[in-house]
Amino acid sequence: MQPKVNDEPSRRRSNSADFRPRAASESTLEVGRGISGRLGHRGTTVRWGFIQTPRSDDDRTPRKPPLAQLISASKGGAMRTRLYLALLWTMGGGDERHMVNWPARTFAELLDLKDPHRLGERRVREAFRLFERLELLTINAQPGRPSILRLQREDGSGETYTNPGDESRSVDWIFERLPPEHYFVELPSTFWTQGWHVALDGPALAMLLVLLRITNNGMKKGEFVSPRQRARYRLSDDTWSRGVSQLQAYGIVTVKKKPVGEVWDFKRLRNTFTVERERLDRSPLTDEEESPARAKARPRSRPKPKAKRATRPTTRDTNPTPDASAKAREVYKRLAAASARRRTPR
């Protein structure tokens, strides 16, 4: 039985003019770099089943996928989503055990939580217990020592976890097809080492995973999302709009309106999405010129008034204008004297 999660969408709307990039602390970046080096700088693989509902469930009322269950929580949804992605990063690769026994404080420091040694550690432990109820994780307590955490498949099926990358490499693509339950998206190691896991809020993080799924890890450009496809992710309209808006502001996603439809159909302008994966290789606080939305969000300074150009006086002028420059007055005198000489009878 799945625990109930508050799925009431937040009423707060994002405003691009109020966008302020968020930076991870130096200690968090140091922890991320240390873990990445220990893991061989591998990426984070996330099965489609974590992001969307299975195709067989389209015609009935299915449960929400784990991503929607975590992100729609009224409080702490973004932190729980980041934490579970961190578990997939640290335990998803390596050997077949897919387990760690790191203290909760380590994950609190990685996520840049406030007071990681007390309050942050407690929030992490509470999230672990929620993951266990959602059948995403098993916890083996060790008195006096950190608990042993073991991954379960991220689609919430309760099955034993296997690395989808290993499953993909084991398939002979000439004669076989990879089972749909092993399709996945991947976040690069720089997602953690550059601080993107802190910079992106909950809706942006959810939409990054969704758009990576839609664009096949960013390889497809200008993808349109139909209402039927959108319904499979079980995310609110508020999450879509706020998440896409922030991804645009950071330059991770490009949105363009294009006519969509068959030749014989009436074509309407629809939003199409392109994921710029290479943007995740750099810090959220650099390369502002690559993000038009972010540049647009900066306050505009009032333009300086243009300086008035001095006009050349003519012989018809009786007196120079009061605001004429000294050079203009000198030119006027020479022209007036020359005109007077021409008018003097010989």
Short structural description:
By secondary structure, this protein is an alpha+beta fold. It has helices at residues 26-38, 48-51, 66-71, 77-91, 104-110, 119-133, 164-169, 190-193, 196-199, 202-214, 227-231, 237-250, 292-297, 326-343; strands at 44-47, 99-100, 137-142, 145-151, 184-187, 223-224, 253-260, 268-275. Helix content is 38%, strand content 12%.
Key features of this structure:
346 residues, alpha+beta, 3-stranded antiparallel beta sheet, 14 helices, 8 strands, elongated, disordered N terminus
Which shape, going by the Cα principal axes? elongated
SSE series: HEHHHEHHEEHEHHHEHHEEHH
Give the neighbour order of strands across the main sheet. Answer: 2-4-3
Work out the radius of gyration.
30 Å
Main sheet? 3 strands, antiparallel
Helix content percent band: 25-40%
Q: Count the helices. How many?
A: 14
The structure class reads: alpha+beta
Low-confidence stretches: 1-17, 288-299
N-C termini distance = 117 Å
Mean pLDDT: 80
Topology, number of strands: 8
Give the DSSP E fraction (strand runs of 2 or more residues).
5-15%
Write structural notes for this entry.
The chain has helices at residues 26-38, 48-51, 66-71, 77-91, 104-110, 119-133, 164-169, 190-193, 196-199, 202-214, 227-231, 237-250, 292-297, 326-343; strands at 44-47, 99-100, 137-142, 145-151, 184-187, 223-224, 253-260, 268-275. It has 346 residues and is α+β, with helices and mostly antiparallel strands. The chain has a domain at 16-209. A three-stranded antiparallel beta sheet has the order 2-4-3. A three-stranded antiparallel beta sheet has the order 6-8-7. The N and C termini lie far apart (117 Å).
